[in-house]
Amino acid sequence: MGTTIEAQGLIKLYGKTRALDGLDLVAHSGQVTAVLGPNGAGKTTFVRAVATLLAPDGGTLRVAGYDVRQDPRSVRRLIGLAGQFAAVEPAMTGRENLEMVARLFGQGRRAAKRSAAAVLEQLGLVQDGDRLARTYSGGMRRRLDLGASLVGSPRLLLLDEPTTGLDPRSRNELWEAIRGLVEGGTDVLLTTQYLDEADHLATQIVIIDHGHTVASGTPTELKRRIGGNVVELHVRHEEQLSVVAQLLDRLDQSDAQIDAPTRRVSVRVEGGSDQLMTALRSVDASQVEIEDIALRQPNLDEVFLALTGQPTAGEDQDAAEAA
Amino acid sequence: MTSTASTLGPAAVARTGAHAGLVSSTLTVARRALLRYLRTPQLIVLATIQMSLFFLIYRYMFGGAIHIAQISYVDFLVPGFIATGVLFSGIGTAAAMAEDLQQGFIDRLRSLPIPRSSVLAARALADTAIFAWSTVFTAAIAYAVGFRLHGSALDGLAALGLVILFGFAFEWAFIAMGLFAGNAQAAQGLGMIVFPFAFVSSAYVPVSSMPGWLQVFAAHQPLTYMVNAVRALTLGPHAEALLGHPASYFVVRALVWTAAILAVFLPLAVAKYRRG
Asked: Are the C-beta atoms of residues B58 and B151 closer than 8 Å to each other?
């Protein structure tokens, strides 16, 4: 298994801010690597460094063996970039947009037409290919943007928060498209602040925060790494959330987490069914009415909380506003 | 390269390290800027109407109050209006450049295996072409309301060529402005800097009619030399009496300014673009 991206002790400074602060990351070929982290964690800075859009201030960064500082042109021949903003020309048709990028990859007129047609087909945009991109919906524009990053047949596709600001249906469509690409043999590096996105798409997840790597591994490894299980209780009345939280606090060393909107309380436990039984008994004794109680594997939200000591809540909203 | 592309297909091309050269990538990116202009009717219609309105206001409203010895005001005005036109169309260049930067279009281009200089060269080329078109259009309107060439047709063509050359040089100043501004609104705001250059010049009224302290600036700033160069070429035999020097005097000075503007702003824009 070859290496597509190799970052060692990567540093990028903006004034006094250390956007990247000794980031280490290895992405292997033949898989999707997700860089996961809250806003300001350094995700976009990292992608921009890989895309040769900025020069790191320290450390080394190699893409397919080429150093991004010494040989940026070789790197540019291998990558395709799709950003948070749909960087397509609204006054050109989908097809024209793709042909333009293909031409810039050095393809001849006929080859460019062929690759544009192939990408339209691949992304399900054939019917709309000859309409101006300004008439596209947000999701279609994002797919076209993805297409523009594909038309040069990149070895490595860089997707910076590809689904930020999309409605659930467009998001699913884009996920489908990305999965299709990976099956076709393209390596993908994507950044996201959506944990379920990383869980759905990635073979390997690298969690970063404050410009350095907090943890990395497969989704399953990461879940296993923080150990144990989660006991989760769904209560009937919101007022009883704090009572239940107090009960669950006593189960293990971890603090119980309250999610008020869904009326759920959860706590990480080292064991499993024993602690579930204990929880059930103490809740029964306290006469709190519950809808549901369950023992499950931790989700990535909980992984993030356990690894960085801070929740991811609130970040999604910022991103939606930025988009 | 083309034959490789058609026999091996896109994948092979990307992986064997082919890439678009300076000329072909510049033309490809410039084509996009032109298409955007042509396919955005608001841009053309608004710009054309605004320009024609201002022209007609000068010609018929202010023109009645301004008297120039020996020549009609329309013959005085048109060279000034056309030569300063670049300043106003340049604001559009700065805004478009800033918008491309803001919306990630530049990021896409910078991540492609093309010479970096082609992106800015494309913008300068496309916007100079648009400016040339609007200059010819203005000249046609001017002709319809009484403007005439008093020199030879060749002088007229030389004047047009000069205006387009100024346009090209100034585009670089506006490209730099757009890159420094970072977003379209800021670029439009910075664009206000063109007003003193356009108005405190010999474009619309004789410099001698201004207060002394303004005359110092008006007489020596680049736009005045450019306006007078165009005027000298279109007024024919009347020119030297009005302007005090032969056409060559102004043309040479205007060309020196053009070179100076290019020498300052082209490297500045490229440096800013490279730094990202």
From this structure: no
